[in-house]
Design brief:
Layout: H1 2-21, E1 28-33, E2 36-42, H2 45-48, H3 55-67, E3 76-81, H4 85-93, E4 98-103, E5 128-130, H5 135-150
Parallel strand pairs: 3-4, 4-5
Antiparallel strand pairs: 1-2, 1-3
């Protein structure tokens, strides 16, 4: 599974680089089931004029449209950055089985850094999760993006 996690995170990193090329915060996400991609996305809130257009949101929307269902059981979501509260709620409501993320987000992370949304047993679905997969590459991509944006 570790090899699969690294391979799929590599795909998410490629999507994050696409976001960066579009001037968006470089976050990419890919939803996988049984080795097949159901949906993918990269941050696009600026380009789409949509504050909800996070990579996770777009990947899960694409997957739901593809399979014709808003529930996505048995899936794994790979995302380069720990999801925010909005996306963690979405992941839970969609019944994603497992979340794998790269870099932690100490300012807005809703998996373990700031909040624990997806693991709360009080909710009707608890998502399994693994953090830190390809963390150095994910963190570097974000750090370099923000440094360039600030002009340093």
């Amino acid at each position: 599974m570790i090899d699969d996690d690294s391979r799929w995170m590599d795909h998410a990193l490629q999507l994050a680089q696409r976001a960066a090329a579009e001037g968006e915060v470089p976050v990419g996400a890919v939803l996988v089931k049984d080795g097949d991609i159901l949906g993918e996305g990269w941050n696009r809130p600026i380009g789409l004029h949509d504050p909800s257009a996070h990579a996770e949101m777009l990947a899960l929307r694409a997957a739901g449209a593809r399979i014709g269902n808003y529930r996505l059981p048995g899936t794994t979501l790979y995302v380069t950055l720990e999801p925010c509260v909005m996306c963690a709620g979405l992941i839970t409501h969609a019944r994603v089985q497992r979340l794998v993320f790269g870099a932690a987000d100490p300012k807005a992370g809703a998996v373990h850094s700031l909040y624990d949304v997806i693991g709360t047993p009080r909710l009707n679905h608890v998502v399994e999760w693994t953090g830190g997969v390809r963390e150095p590459e994910c963190a570097t991509l974000l750090r370099d993006f923000f440094r360039a944006r600030r002009g340093r």
